[in-house]
Fold each of these.
Amino acid sequence: MAQSLQQSQQRHLDELIQWLKIPSVSSDTSKIGDVKAAGDWIANKLADSGLKVETIQTQGHPMIYAESPAIDGAPVVLVYGHYDVQPPEPLNLWTTPAFEPTVRNGNLYARGATDDKGQVLTHVHSICDWMATGKPLPLQIKLLIEGEEEVGSENLERMMPELADKLACDCVVISDSSQYGPGQPAITYGLRGIATYELLVQGPKQDLHSGSFGGAVMNPAIALCHLMSSMVDREGRIAIDGFYDSVRDLSPAEREAWDQLPKTDDFAKSVGASELFGEKGYSADERRWARPTFDINGLTSGHQGEGVKTVLPAQASAKFSFRLVPDQDPTQLTDAINSHLTKHLPTGVTFKLTPDHGAPGMLADTNSRFMDAARAAITAAFETPPVLIREGGSIPIVTRFQETLRCDCLLLGWGLSDDNAHSPDEKFCIEDFYRGIQASTMLWESIGKLSS
Amino acid sequence: MAQSLQQSQQRHLDELIQWLKIPSVSSDTSKIGDVKAAGDWIANKLADSGLKVETIQTQGHPMIYAESPAIDGAPVVLVYGHYDVQPPEPLNLWTTPAFEPTVRNGNLYARGATDDKGQVLTHVHSICDWMATGKPLPLQIKLLIEGEEEVGSENLERMMPELADKLACDCVVISDSSQYGPGQPAITYGLRGIATYELLVQGPKQDLHSGSFGGAVMNPAIALCHLMSSMVDREGRIAIDGFYDSVRDLSPAEREAWDQLPKTDDFAKSVGASELFGEKGYSADERRWARPTFDINGLTSGHQGEGVKTVLPAQASAKFSFRLVPDQDPTQLTDAINSHLTKHLPTGVTFKLTPDHGAPGMLADTNSRFMDAARAAITAAFETPPVLIREGGSIPIVTRFQETLRCDCLLLGWGLSDDNAHSPDEKFCIEDFYRGIQASTMLWESIGKLSS
């Protein structure tokens, strides 16, 4: 029996809430069971709609694959998304608990609301609802929803060659990014790459009394600060030799187009920073979307508890990451960092650099027929034509899809830049969730009219 | 009934073990009851011997005061020590639990073994045992054993004027420092001062996605590293304007005397550091004992758990401390640090500096009659004459005793520099514990022969 729009929207939201309650934190080894449960949840949802579903085991968390029947002469689209989420910490900064989804002011708050359960579910809903009508889809749709995006998608990367036939498609569709602003949808044609590291600086064999030893034994926390400071100047310019050699410059046309984008709210104010910051000669959007950057993601050393402990710590460590732009190779970067650290290492300490994951950046063709189809679908669903933007985040697997599958790529973000994707109080605007489902439906209609 | 030496040594050790089992961590608000219990323990021990005992309440943890009868014409000595201890963290680095005292290889391992329960108890034992003989002490002894030395002795400092009459004495005796090396006792005639701080750097109002915002929003962890690096160079030279203006230089005679000290084991090797470090033009002892230094005691920011979280943290903080030398004023330092941080603050972040505690350094008169008495007592008990040294640590209250009570000061350390005073596996050599008790007894005999 057909549901009213309101009934189906309520059902769409209820199902998202169910899914968000599962704490599928892929980086937390104690959450393996929850990650599996979140994968099973979406696999069951897809199987219930009549799609052919397969759980692909990996050395880590499983991937869920589904496909609709092949349609002669019509394109094949691969929808990619992920069911794993970032860690919720710091827990005390959430207004309501991360895994108890809560509606406030038209937004749904939960870890994974926008990144990426809420966004990938727009496509799952549009496809399942289409299947429920009994009418065949006008194209073949494949879905790959993995459980390791937040830890670098290494298993999917490794298995890509063996999965290439299964995943073969004309275009990958991914909704894991943002609109340009509230009421201004966007198509993202570029992403930054990433390279993440952990640095451990080792001083004395154990913590020492800073009075008895301070000044005669190098303090590894001070050494760490010197090393971190040596890697980037106060304006965000990275000081590693050769770092900018392969950076692809922004084209004048791109810079002009971005300059024409509707102005959003004061950027520094929106994130609560005291003032703007960044590399000289670039706008905030240029810095975030098209310039490589360095960030410290975590610092740990010595006494972190209450009160004073005048210790000279044995160790200090930093987690840090680079965002890369097209033509920068994350594998070459590790050697450059090791050389830099060796050169700048203070006396009396040793270091160990552990690379975690890396991926190059990507740029999509802004003139493809799939891009035209997406523009039409979004304009209809959001009642506003999308703008073309890049994003500063990384979806490491996107470049690999392009390389391996030789396909086009559509990054259709339904989120907003203040959705707190990796922070407390992550949210997703419920109206955009519904619009995303509608745009997704229209996208299948538009792409169905193209030849394969 | 008189005990054999062996019996009384066993009793001395057993009582120390009892006391060490009480986790009297003064900086940990959850341990208030344990801190009180440790104070009660030593108060009862002193009262049982027949001394007049008083518990002095403060705004924080109580102080235990005791005194023997005044002796006409004989000096008055004040024994000062503390029953509070440093936090035991990191717990996983202890071979046996911090509050389960364990004997291994002639050492007693426990938090507080050397700092300061084991050391102050040498005096308590010598006094109580003397009292038990029924013979009067040849001098008046007062004892002040407080519960806030590890958090800066602020209440004792504040109450010093009102306590001045009660504490009036000719000489303060403190055992909370180290011998020069194994088998080489020392009298410490100088201590460094201290000033401790916490710095909080605030960036955006909450943690942000480093991809979406990195490069356009200042990272407070990077800002913190720049600020910390700006305060000290790679050789330990502090870069705060005017910092060295009031530093009292080492005298040539002192440098020569220290140069004559018996050489100990390779210093870097003994602490497990890869090589020596420190301010140019000074020896390791000079750097530790007589030069001001800067140490980071703790760093905290962003993601510290397992795995990767590519966050741009909202905050970063450092706990840091300076060791000061005579003539440096810790109260003036706070203004200088604030100016320095303001001048060097990167764009886009704010900071808050919170001073914790501070105390100036001290130098004692090496030619006093009390120094002579101590030399004789130690030479007899340790069968080796003591050398005269300074120490790098701080006993903030010592300068205040000197100023308020106008007394001499004896710092008689029975510990060793590798006792891990503020680290895991803190220990105290049991033989030195016994020698300390003997030296303490002999000290009362020697001082009893001086006129008041």
Amino acid sequence: MRGQPPATVTELADRVGMSRPGTDVVVRGLVADGWVKVVEPDGSTVGRPARRYCFNAEAGHVLGVDVGVHKILVLLSDLEGHVVHSHRLPVEPSADPAARLDAVDTAITQCLKAAKMRPTQIWAVTVGVTGPVDSTGRTTLFTPLPGWAGVSPAEHLAARFTCPILVENDCKLAAVAERWQGAAQDADDIVYVLAGIRTGAGLIIDGTLRRGFGGAAGEIGALKAVRWDSAPEHIENCPGIPSSIHADDRAAWVFTEARAGNRDASTAIRRYVKDLAVGTAALVLTLDPQVVVLGGGFSRSADLILDPLARELGRLCLRVPEIRASSLGADSVALGALRVALDHLDSQLFTDGMPAPLTR
Amino acid sequence: MRGQPPATVTELADRVGMSRPGTDVVVRGLVADGWVKVVEPDGSTVGRPARRYCFNAEAGHVLGVDVGVHKILVLLSDLEGHVVHSHRLPVEPSADPAARLDAVDTAITQCLKAAKMRPTQIWAVTVGVTGPVDSTGRTTLFTPLPGWAGVSPAEHLAARFTCPILVENDCKLAAVAERWQGAAQDADDIVYVLAGIRTGAGLIIDGTLRRGFGGAAGEIGALKAVRWDSAPEHIENCPGIPSSIHADDRAAWVFTEARAGNRDASTAIRRYVKDLAVGTAALVLTLDPQVVVLGGGFSRSADLILDPLARELGRLCLRVPEIRASSLGADSVALGALRVALDHLDSQLFTDGMPAPLTR
């Protein structure tokens, strides 16, 4: 019934191939448990209309938390994945773990407060962080966040939530989001490339997010030969950027200038794309995906990147996949976090089972 | 019952959780269809021993064909994958498609003749070829075999076989073989690296061979930046190789000399491994596998390659997987071809179904 419009018992019986009386018994049980709610007739029909039922998406909620370099973003959704509240807080790139976790706590508090909910009403939380996430939920191998390598966001949040708390890499979550609601909803084999001040990747193969044996899949950027580590420097160090421009706005200045005909800016972008293409080609040649989705801050300037990137990949690869720009922007990590939390609930429900909403 | 020792009806009933009489009916049906055979008591037991049953592996057979640069290898196996006959023919690297297909035909004829079987008794054939295999079963994107890009091995063999004929890339088949019977039987996430005069890769993720959207997964070697294309030249062009050594034996000379203390040979191998490691690191960083299996001709000298390769990967990667040498040698492609043919039969049996052996 989830994801479907309200339906009568007769319609449900047809849909699942059970008898009408049998379906009626099951539906009444689901209503009693809180999984399904009754949709009362709106009175517009003549005669006595049949009662309709729909999935009770408000039975439970999940949180998706993006712990970024510059921001904390918390999304709260129902069991259908509809976002009912969000809260965003800026955070300094140089913030230490305590300050960053404080911001996470505050953003979650604000989000729950706005939704008038208690932590016990949250069924699952997924936290997105930068760097590969190991089996303990930490980013011990690598993280650009100061002092963050030893931090366990799951342990920190366990003081407040009794539900499952998952931790996942930001690029992997963004890839999940693009397949769920973004630019790659039709594809099962997806390479997501985060293009911005940092460059990263998330991989979906056969419809499933691939974490790798140790959680470090997609970390091609660590290989110097594919030139991702230095690629953004072409843009950051573009000649002519006025010293009055804030460090965070240098790239936007370069893209704007390139559109206005500034040769230095165009050259910087051309060199950036050439380097971005090498690492992207390594992913494409390894996996031969259907789609490459370009996300991250620079994807707002996809008009200046997509065509030259496709040309470079044509030169470097045996077969060039479709290349699309992200349609989700800066919310993609938190959205993917919601999806991973919901998927976790699904797998719990269909393996170990879980308590019904009204028996919790 | 497949892969299990002979069992009595009582044992089978226990195994599947059915009643003894019900199991008896099913087993008699399987015997009548030819899927199961009766194992007569050997008379060593006192009293009247219970009749035992086992899977009839000889009910059907499959062929695995390796169309290599230097050789054609045909393996014939029963439904358990036991090789009952094989036939190997040398072929010139320069052979044109007609000559190479002639050799394939001859090797298949010899193999069937030795087994006293007709083509109609073969249930599936898998052909391994070099280069990525597209959706038509051709290697249109790339092949090192002269004139082979437009050849369809499936169409060629369809003149002789009415069963399904599959075509697959050689490195992908070798990867399958290593997981089936070779060095990676315990792993689900495997990068297979073919190390020889050519360098290639096959990928198994979550226990499944990954072909890629267009069949070109694993073709990282096409990216110049990862240095696979030139890596073997360090060994081929090692200073001091006597002109009397045949081109195909130059690598063996270098490995032998390195073991004997020849500095030039050791240097050539060190440079080779440094280049091999870059492409391998690209695969490892992309997929984060549990195991890297080193196969191909050079894997016979794994004693000289594995340790320095692990050191280089330690330098280049975030997390270094286990590195193991292939245990299958030159038969791995044809063995993988058998496994793919058997898997195809399984998927047919469990989806569309297939005629019972005795009703064919």
